[in-house]
Design goal:
By secondary structure, the protein is mostly beta strands. It contains no helices and ten strands. The strands form three sheets. A four-stranded antiparallel β-sheet has the order 1-2-3-4, with no helix packed on it. A four-stranded antiparallel β-sheet has the order 7-6-9-10, with no helix packed on it. Strand 3 (36-45) and strand 4 (48-53) form a beta hairpin. It is elongated and about 75 Å long.
Length: 151
Amino acid sequence: MVGSTFEIVTPYTEAELPSVKYAQSADTMTLTHPNHPPYLLKRTGASTFTLAAMVIGAVIASPTGLVAAISEAHTQAPMRGYTVTAISASNKEESLPAIPIFIVGGNTNGDLTSQCGVRVTWTGPAQSADHYNIYATGVIGRPIPPQTAIT
């Protein structure tokens, strides 16, 4: 369609157009301006386009309501922190972490199974989560590899 003009509604005013920055990769242009979120302009067909605000960050909600219960106390146990992330069922995206909780006690062997003395529970976003990752900080802030909880 040589010589055809296509128009699409944008959030930019005429005065803002000189300040719009862009980068193109194949059929997608990324548009940025200081007064607006980034937008993606995509060519979806020979003469069709879409313009949508760019999604930045995790879409799946973080788990909430973390609770840690000690079932096996240890007199010399250090303080440990726990947090949980949700993994999206649709695209395996990891959520931002839940607000962490800190407790003193429990087994210090790094195993987060039910035998270790600390049980971590939470709520949300069950409808869209495939599984959850549990993160713990160990002695002197040493991270413990994440354990997977199957929903």
